[in-house]
Amino acid sequence: MWGRNVVLGGGMLAVTWAVSACSGTPAPPSPSASAPTSVTSSASTSESGQPATESNPPGDIPDNQAFVAFTPPGAAFSVKIPEGWASSTAGATTTFTDKLNQVQVGTAAAASAPTAASVTATDVPAWRGQVPRFALGQVSTVTRQAGPAVLVTYQGDSAPNPVTGKVVRDAFEHYVFFHAGTRVDLTLSGPVNADNVDPWRTVTDSLRWQG
Fold first, then answer.
1. So where are the chain's domains?
2. Structure pTM?
3. Alpha carbon distance 128, 22 (integer Å)
4. How far is Cα 153 from Cα 17, in angstroms, rounded to an integer?
5. Residues 6+ apart with CB under 8 A from 106
6. Which of 33, 75, 110, 210 has the maximum number of C-beta atoms within 10 A of its C-beta?
């Protein structure tokens, strides 16, 4: 997974995710500050010294959200991303953000298709060291319209909100696709209590290889 500007993001998977075209192994996103909120609290840190967590941040993507096709410059694939979201690009990773949700699209050259075992051995340790309070969920292989993908679910904290000092606990879905020497990472992230199952499925099912 690559992050939310924050941190595509996020998520579902921060730090801006940078992808190494040489190694094919993505670096996790850098955590972004959570959006300002009108909720006030006298405690901005927990008893453990960690930043306090927002109890009920907004996060659901609207049911009427429109999606548009996105093709990174020079890439041989397209993927649908939510229309109207702010975007930024760092290297081979483009991040789309709206409020507390994020989608990241990253590409890298790869000699072979990643597997659940290779992602667990190579990518997960990198994310664990860079995502605040990283908590691994599951690593599995799933099937989408573009073919099989390795799916990693995990949780992590956003950067502290500059106003409240609190963080948002994010849930990430990180998909790793492969085709003809190209690795594509889709990282989807949002608050753990957000109901974004349908929009995340729209994004991950929309990937189309060109050629």
1. 18-34+72-209
2. 0.76
3. 21
4. 16
5. 2, 17, 19, 26, 92, 93, 94, 184, 185, 187
6. 110
